[in-house]
Amino acid sequence: ALNRIPGRLPGPKGPVSWTLWMGLLAFIPGIIGMGGILGGTGQSVALLLPELDSRWAAGIAAAVTSAILYTGTYVRLERIMLVLVAGFTVATLTAAGAMQLTEFRVTPGDLAAGFCFRFPAEHMVLALAVFGATGVNAAEISSYTYWCVEKGYAGYIGGDTGDPAWLARARGWVRVLHLDVWITLAILTCATVPFYLLGAGVLHRVGLQPRGFETVSVLSAMFTQTLGGWSLWLFGGAAFCILYSSVVAGFGGISRFLPDYLIEFGFLDRSRLATRIALTRGFGAVIPLVSFLFYVGLPNPVLLLSVGALVATLLLPVQSGATLWLQRHRMDHRLLPGQWARTGLWLIFLFQALT
User: Fold this and answer.
1) CB atoms < 10 A from the CB of 315, how many?
2) What phi, psi does 96 have (nearest 5°)?
3) 303 burial type by CB count under 10 A (0-12 exposed, 13-18 middle, 19+ buried)
4) Which one, of 8, 29, 27, 70, lies nearest residue 264 by Cα?
5) Where does residue 300 rank: exposed (0-12), middle (13-18), buried (19+ CB within 10 A)?
6) 3-state secondary structure labels for all residues of the chain
7) pTM to 2 decimal places
């Protein structure tokens, strides 16, 4: 789809869209950012098992991830992680509620102050990184198309054959996608906003900043200061679930991008399904180990994640702009979203581009 966007640049086998080159240039920063998440996973394990060095724990997590993606057993893990991530969301909501019963409570005045247009310039880079990493980021938006295919969404619709039932089926699946989006928005809001409130209410007030090998242990203060010391185990387990699920899904998505890049650049024929599957599994086995090396070389999860997130921020307006163009020129107009949705997407695109 991205290779259909106008604006061709020279490629190794012929001209390709500029969006492909931009995505390919973002590949290395993306791997670096995943190294930060992998490092955080190792630190969450070390929080529960202090005798285990976080680098060893991150290395074990990378090796296990490689095995999962190489063997294609992610589906089984996904079912488990779904329950565990839901548990993390509930735990975060509980801790945020408990904070309101302590000296760290957030007042309506605090919330109002957060919406004032006063912003320290020295935090601009970090703010842009947060914008690129929070919620559904650029990599996850791209991965979503692959998950839809692999989950079987619209698997039996095919092209429009003139059958009136085809349009009804296609609209039905578009409604499924809309439902996905709204549920995702609700879950992310419930998980992310309370986490920010905990950070501002607890960490900011006591002057703690997560960095280096202490990143996850510092973040655990959001739970221990509100729920008590026993919640260290709760936070450590929940942090592992949310981080490791991001690791497996993130590397799983990246391993699916790469064969498509080879196809669009002319090195591989799309019909060679067995080769594509082998490449996907091979990339899935290697990339986690490469990210782990970045973490070993620079064991600062926040910095590594910021590198990847800053580049992801640049990709967001490309994705929303490409979506607008593809809707206008490539999508069956009978399936176009309503005027409110299109206006909202234009506003999102303009906001991302200006930011």
Assistant:
1) 23
2) -65, -40
3) middle
4) 8
5) middle
6) CHHHCCCEECCECECEEHHHHHHHHCHHHHHHHHHHHHHHHHHHHHHHCCCCCHHHHHHHHHHHHHHHHHHCCHHHHHHHHHHHHHHHHHHHHHHHHHHCCCCCCCCHHHHHHHCCCCCCHHHHHHHHHHHHHCCCCHHHHHHHHHHHHHHCCCCCCCCCCCCHHHHHHHHHHHHHHHHHHHHHHHHHHHHHHHHHHHHHHHHHHHCCCCCHHHHHHHHCHHHHHHHCCCHHHHHHHHHHHHHHHHHHHHHHHHHHHHHHHHHHCCCCCCCCHHHHHHHHHHHHHHHHHHHHHHHHHCCCHHHHHHHHHHHHHHHHHHHHHHHHHHHHHCCCHHHCCCHHHHHHHHHHHHHHHHC
7) 0.85
> How many residues are present in the chain?
355
CB atoms within 10 A of CB 152: 8
- How confident is the model over 66-117, as pLDDT tens digits? 998 898 776 776 777 777 778 778 878 888 888 888 888 888 888 888 788 7
Q: Is 148 exposed, middle or buried (0-12, 13-18, 19+ CB in 10 A)?
A: middle
- What's the token pair of residue 169? 């089926």
